[in-house]
Structure formats: structure tokens, C-alpha cells
Amino acid sequence: MAMAPRCSTFTTLSTLLFILLVYSCRSAAPAFYLPGSYPHRYRPGDALAAKVNSLTSPSSKLPYPYYSLPFCAPPDGVRRAAESLGELLLGDRIETSPYRFSMLNNTAALFLCRTDPVAPAAAELIKSRIDDAYQVNLLLDTLPVVRYVKNPIAPEVLLRSTGFPFGVRADDGEYYVYNHLRLTVLLNKQNGTTRVEALMATADAAELISFAGGKEGGGYTVVGFEVVPCSVDHDAAAVRGKKMYDEIASKATAGCDPSVVGMRVQDGRPLVFSYEVSFVESSIEWPSRWDAYLEMGGAKVHWFSILNSIVVVAFLAAIVLVILLRTVRCDLAQYEELGGEAGGAHADELAGWKLVAGDVFREPSHPVLLCVLVGDGVRILGMGVVTILFAALGFMSPASRGALVTGMLCLYLVMGAAAGYAAVSLWKTLRQGDTAGWRSVAWRSSFAVFPAVGFAVFTALNCLLWYNGSTGAVPYLLFVGILLLWLLVSVPLTLAGGLLAPRVRHIEHPVRTNKIARQVPAARCSPWVMVAAAGTLPFGTVFIELFFIMSSLWLGRVYYVFGFLLVVMALLVAVCAEVSVVLTYMGLCVEDWRWWWRAFFASGSVALYTLGYAVYYLVFDLHSLAGPVSAALYVGYSLLMALAVMLATGAVGLAASFCFVHYLFSSLKMD
Questions:
Q1: Contact present, 446 and 416 (Cβ < 8 Å)
Q2: Tens-place pLDDT, residues 168-219
Q3: Residue 113 bridge partners (DSSP)
Q4: What dihedral angle (degrees, nearest 10) is formed by the CA atoms of 450, 454, 455, 459?
Q5: Which secondary structure element, helix H or strand E, spans residue 564, and what is its range?
Q6: 379: part of which helix (H) or strand (E)?
Q7: Which residues, at least 6 apart from 344, have a Cβ–Cβ distance to it below 8 Å?
Q8: What angle do CA 177, 179, 183 make, to 5 degrees?
């Protein structure tokens, strides 16, 4: 009977968490900035310098260094910017660029450089990058450059995209590069009466520092960065003898039109690059400057997905309530009526789950593997819940590039303690308190299944990226660092969690297990058919959000509605728990006491549909995916995603089924 309060407490906490999640969804898209993330204020005449990131493509998933193509280098040389762990894992390589401005100083066309004559090999590389639609990514004050183009279907509507294409293939079959950039910097003038004060602790006392406005008020903040790329064939006389940042009087740049091309790619012909910049005051405030990047359409679709999931949860909850409040209670009442002295005469009237009381807690086949899988599932589920919760509350600021990936990696390492504890606790429960062999379970939780499979896939894909010279490849030192983090942080924490579990009292079984296993009656239909079909309900809860997530990962679209995702995850957990409970009860009713693995895969089978949807998405939405390496990346990461989903949902299903079975057989009065 000790298990019922635990299940009740779990239900209460789940309800409170769900209310919190629904409340947080009311403001899912906007995010606030963490303390310490403050605006950089510029005075008139202050220098600004744009930076460049890796070249990316929606069709080829191999990012390449910016200077792998014949671009102009800054006069003081190319320098790498400091990058976070998440940025490096995402393939970002931020470097300095020659694009430099002076605050509020609008400039006409400025000469950048004239490259050496393009060699045949370089010309082929340029054409290949243009065919794969590679984009140039500039950054100014951490803001990516934005390009607006007219919608071909509705010309009055402008489409927004980050970055701009390196070049274009014209209707005549020739290749042209966008060698002239018309840049626009949007500024917000700070109110001169505004005081921004920071209390800084010093060695002696607290010092109050005020950034009050002077003659220029509070200065200016950068709130937008836009570009119009043009292909311009500069006059030879206009660029002859020019140095970097000299003004050029080229008539071609006066009518900068992206639809008109002029700088053709030819063997032996140099490329000439130039740019111009203008500063425009904007009413956009600094805290809202990311809204244009994070704006996502389809809010009604997200709400429809949530309402659909709520209907599924309510339907399954009704089934579970019928099982618990009606069917089970009637069965228990009938069992008590047949008990006592008359029980032997009417024993043949008993049927169903009551007859497997002596076998229901029998140790399943491959118990170590089951414990390791559940431990991995707890780790992944904990990492996902905490990451999405922090992101929904605004702690994953978009200004901090790679913060989401960095947080996920750190949480995965820390959650090793939960994985070890869950795996060894389940092992101890299966063995009815016997802790022999827990060290083997803890060690295997540190290395086996998801850590081993994930590291093997990551290493194989990283070697492919290394071979192709892509910035998506993790640098060698970082690769070694990640391996050391796994060995020196994750493994000890997993072992520490496993060491703690034997010291905690295990959950006692309410009934004793017979020495001889009961024979399972032959089933008309394999129970694994129902297990495979059960995954449709959890998948129906998440498939709409899965589309947006896949589009963010593979099509470069922005996904920042973590409030919706948090609610959907809570609904997914509820559906997985209910589906597993229903299938477990159905199995026990036909006197099949082998419920452990079926409970795990009843909810974990959603991974099959997730993998199937990944194949569907590849065929119908990523039909422009170019090259076998890009396909290998997609398949490898899709397999890892499906495995992670199976482990997390399987752990939820097994935990819910165990609570249900424990409560069910705690109500029996056994002789």
C-alpha cells in the first residue's frame, strides 16, 4: 500500500506543472534578456565592424568557411572571434570582415578589393557554391543581416530571410556573383533623460556608475541590419588605382537592382567587391530587436495541435478511470465474494489479471538491458524538460548564439546522476531488494546504448565533415574535450547516482512471486501488434510541432515558441503514461504477466512513427537535399532523434505501468 501515496503525489505534481506550462505559453515567443546582456551604445563617429559567419545552404547541409571563396580580407588580417561550445557544435565560424562603418556616417560606394584573376579550379568552386544556393551571413552587433525580397505570388508582400546568396545563375546559363552590398543599419536613439545605473561591488565599497546622456543623449543602439545584394560590373577606369575604402564613382552602383546582374564568373577574370552603407533611425527598441527574427507564423496551428492533444489525453484518461473505478473495483468485489471458505469451490470462476498475482512482479528477460534503457530515458527526458523550461522562461537568449546547444550538452552530462540512480533503483526493485550486480548496471548506464550509439554516430559523421573541409566538423581539440567531459564528468556522476541508489529503500512488491512461472495462454493475436499500434496516439500529439522542429533543423527556419513545445511535451508524457497503462491492463486481463517490456515499448513505439515521419519529410520537404554527405547527416541525426524519443517515452510508460500494477495488486487480499 506504500505505492499509492507516491502515485497520488506524482499526479498532483503533474497537474501543478501542467498549469504552470499552460500559463507560460501565454507569452511563448518573446523572450527577455539575462542580466549582464546589455545594449552596446554608440556615439556618432564610433567605429562599427561587421563580422562574417560560415557559408550555409538550405540544400547542402555542409557549412564552409567564409574565406574558402575569393572574398576580400580585412587589411589587418583575418581573426577568429571567441565562440561558445554551442556555436562550434553548430558549425559557426565567426571571423572579422572588411566591412567597416562609422556611426551615422552614410557613405557612397566604397571600394573593397580586386581579387587575383580567377583560376579555373576557383571558378568551378564558385559555380558549385552558387548551384547549391550557398548564403553569405554577416553579423553586426550579434544581429544577422536580413534580406527582403518580393513574393513572386503576391508582389506586395515582402519575404524576409537571413543572409543573402553568394551569386546566381541567370537565364542565359552564366554565373554571376553579388559583389556590391547596399547595407542599411537601423538605429534607435536613446532618450537623453534615461539613466542606466549599475551597482558594481568594489574592494572598498559599492560604486554607483551612471550612463547619463551628454550632448548626444544616451547614444544609439543597433536594432536592425539589412542588405540589398547587387551584381555590378564596375568600370575598369573607376577602380583603377583605388585602395580599400576609397570612394568609387561607378555608375553601375547607382541603380543597384538585385534582378540585374553584371559581375560574371569567368576564368582569368578578377572579381571586384564594393559596398555602401546608410544609417536609418527606427522606432524599434533594443529589447525588441530580435522580434523580427523570431516571429513565427502559424500560432493557430500550434493551438490546434495542443487542443487535439488535450482531446486525446482526456479520452485516454477516461479509459483509465473506467478501468480503475469500475472494472477493477468490480473485479475486486467479485474476488472478495469468492474468497474465504467458498473460494475453493468457485475458484474456476476467477479469470483475468487476478490469476497472475504470483507472477506479475517476476523478473523480466534481459533485466540489465531494461534498467540501462530506463536510465538513459530518464537522462534524456530530464535534459529535455529542463532545457525547454529554461528556454520557455527566456533564459536561452537568441543573442547568445549556441546557448541552447551548450545548455543541452551540459544538462546531459549532469543528468548522468539521474540515469545511474534510476537504472540501479529499477535493478534493485526487480531483484526484490537484492543489490548484487548493481555495479555492472551502473557501468553499463555510463557507456551502453545512447552514449555509445550517439558517440559512434557523432564520430562517423564528424569524420565525413572533416574529410569535406566543412566548418560543421568539430575541431580536433574540441572533439577530445567532449570525450574528456564524457569520461570525467558524465561517467563519475552516473556511478555516483548508482552508488546512492542501493542506500535508498526500494519499493516492495505487494504480492509474493511464485517459484514456478505460470504458463501464459496462447493469444489469438500477437500483443506486439497492439504495442506497435499504440505509438500512433503519442505521435498524434507531437507531429505538428515535429514539423516545425524539423523545418528549423534542416531548412534554417526559426523555432522559438518553446512555451508551446513545453505544453506539448507535458501532453506527450501524459499520453505515453495512459497508453502504457491501458495496454498493460489489457495484457494482464488475458493472463499474460510479461508486461515489463511491453510497457516500455507501448509508449516507446512512437519512435517508429517519428522515424517514418523523418523519411516522409526527406522525400516531400527536403527533395532539394544535395549530395550523399548531406543525406548521411540527415539519416544519422534522424536515427539518434528516434532513439532518444524511444528511450524517453519508454521510461515514462514503464514508470506509469509500474505505478498502476503496484496499486492494482496492492488492493488484493492474498492468502
A1: yes
A2: 998 888 999 999 999 999 999 876 544 433 333 333 333 333 333 444 456 8
A3: 273
A4: 160
A5: helix 562-589
A6: helix 367-392
A7: none
A8: 130
The pTM assigned to this predicted structure is 0.83
Percent of the chain with pLDDT over 90: 40
CA 89 – CA 478 distance, rounded (Å): 9
Question: Strands 107-114 and 272-281, how do they pair?
Answer: antiparallel
pLDDT digits (tens, 9 = 90+) for 551-599: 888 887 777 778 888 988 998 999 899 899 989 988 888 888 889 999 9
What is the Cα–Cα distance from 631 to 62, expressed in whole angstroms? 11
What would the grid cell of residue 220 be? 544609439
The full length of the chain comes to 671
Quote the radius of gyration of the chain (alpha carbons, Å).
31
Residue 246 DSSP one-character state: -
CA dist., res. 367 & res. 383, Å (int)? 24
Which CA distances in Å does 236 have to 176, 241, 382, 413, 640?
18, 10, 63, 59, 54
Write out the three cell numbers for 154: 503576391
Q: Helical H runs in 415-449? A: 416-430, 438-447
3-class secondary-structure state, position 56: strand
Paired with 185 in beta bridges are 225, 279
C-alpha cell at 563: 512555451
Q: How far is CA 144 from CA 55, 140, 280, 378, in A?
A: 13, 7, 17, 37
Residue with cell 507531429: 543
For 578, other C-beta atoms within 10 Å of its C-beta total 25
Q: Which residues contact 549 (CB under 8 A, 6 or more apart)?
A: 559, 565
CB burial of residue 222 (10 Å; 0-12, 13-18, 19+):
buried
CB 625 within 8 A of CB 58: no
Tracing cell 559581375 back to the chain, one arrives at: 263
Work out the mean pLDDT of the chain and round it to a whole number.
82
Q: Which three three-digit cell numbers place residue 372?
A: 540501462
Q: Which residue has the cell 504495442?
A: 531
pLDDT band, residue 369 (cuts 50/70/90): very high
**Grid cell at residue 20:** 504552470
- What are the backbone dihedrals phi and psi of residue 19, each rounded to the nearest 5 degrees, phi first? -60, -40
CB atoms within 10 A of CB 81: 14
Crossing angle for the helix pair 628-666 and 606-620, nearest 10 degrees?
A: 160
- Helix H, strand E, coil C: the string for 177-241 is ECCEEEEEEEEEECCCCCCCEEEEECCCCEEEEECCCECCECCEEEEEEEEEEECCCCCHHHHCC
Q: Decide if 537 contacts 275 (C-beta within 8 A).
A: no
Q: Which three cell numbers stand for residue 645?
A: 524519443
Strands 167-169 and 175-177 turn out to be antiparallel
Contacts of 251 (CB under 8 A, 6+ apart): 235
Q: What span, in angstroms and rounded, lies between the C-alpha atoms of 32 and 34?
A: 7
The 8-class DSSP code of residue 175 comes to E
More confident residue, 26 or 610: 610
Mean local confidence (pLDDT), 6-32:
41
User: Could you tell me how many helices (H) and strands (E) the chain has, helices first?
Assistant: 21, 16
